[in-house]
Amino acid sequence: MKAAVVTAYGTAPQYREFAEPRPANSDEILVEVLAAGLHPRVRMQADGSHYTSSPETLPLVPGIDGVGRGSDGRLWYFLSLAGRYGSMAERAVIDTRRSFVLPEGSDPVSVAATLNCVIASWLALKRRITFSPGQNVLVLGATGGTGRMAVQVCRLLGAGQVIAAGRDPERLAAVPGATATAVIGAPETIGRLGPEVDVVLDFLWGEPATTAMAALVAGRTAPLRPLTWVNLGEMAGARAALPAGALRSSRLQLVGSGQGSLTGAEMAAEIPAVAAEIARGTFAVEPDPVALPDVERAWSRPADSSRRIVLTRRPDADGRTGRQTNRQNGWPAGSR
Fold first, then answer.
1. Whole-angstrom Cα distance, residue 170 to residue 116?
2. CA–CA gap between residue 5 and residue 86 (Å, rounded)
3. 99: which of 78, 137, 207, 251 fits an S-S bond (Cβ 3.0–4.6 Å)?
4. Domain housing 239
């Protein structure tokens, strides 16, 4: 089969032949991959910087999730988090226990663009901490794709205030659903929020986490009020110098949410609810479709927080990449 293939960390995947995977047990099936999102996590997987990376998996097909069509015509959303077989290929083996049949009318490309952006913060609030409606949340890195979506997730799950924190005031002002904003790099703006924040969803780590953590704790007027800090990413750096005084002078709890801290079953259990919200139109990330043969070109394009590159099965008939009609793509009637 054809696939995007990483042969060395730090190099863009190439469109080439790769051995086709085979189901290993009765819970696995082979699907035709229709769409796979190029998420930040996928880029880290391909350049070897993710904490799960290992040279032993090279060569590998990147891609951590996707939408595929089974032999019976059903559309599946699936996770692909282990080994060298990812979702950016013509075909993939999926574990039906860790996958979900999409609702009637689902658009594979939109689902591939949106679900991963939503599930990160959804899992953090639903599975990694005890989150109660009315609690106030600070989203650190709210101008990125997953951060923007986290603001909407917090509102849907009943947060009181949702504070969007980022570096660019203009982009912060455009984040939908935020009740307030805070500029990273101006610690005093975050410090003023200290007394009210209950949960931090941190997509940045690195120096911004160090600065924001110190400012939040310093601004707390009730040190015994719990503050739960959930790390979901490291877009600003893999290491942060934690202020020891902040840990001892407050009820600050540090939690991570991601592969390894959650089981595949826990992740899969939340997919139906998220997929249903996407089908209702609650969440939507504008897809930027690129045909799988053009994966190298897709890799060189800068990230856009308002859109998500999605690798698709085929180019349009006129040579452009993107979505087509159901019959052109071979998707089941009514699947759009």
1. 25
2. 10
3. 78
4. 120-256
What sign for the dihedral angle of Cα 278, 183, 238, 220?
Answer: negative
β-strands 28-37, 65-69: how paired? antiparallel
Report CA 335 to chain centroid distance, whole Å.
23
Q: What is the pLDDT of residues 116-137, one digit of tens each?
A: 999 999 999 999 999 999 999 9
Task: Please list, in sequence order, all residues whose beta carbon lies within 8 angstroms of the beta carbon of residue 49, skipping any fewer than 6 positions away.
Answer: 238
For 197-240, how does the pLDDT look when each residue is reduced to its tens digit (9 = 90+)? 999 999 999 999 999 999 999 999 888 999 999 999 998 999 99
Digit-coded pLDDT (tens) for 279-290: 889 998 999 999
H or E stretch at 126: none
Confirm if 10 and 79 have CB atoms less than 8 A apart: no
Q: Are residues 172 and 200 in the same domain?
A: yes
DSSP 81: -
pLDDT at 6 over 90: yes
Q: Do residues 245 and 124 share a domain? A: yes
Give the DSSP H or E segment for 36.
strand 28-37
Domain count, the chain: 2
Which of helix, strand or coil describes residue 278?
Answer: helix
Query: What CATH number should be reported for the domain holding residue 21?
Result: 3.90.180.10
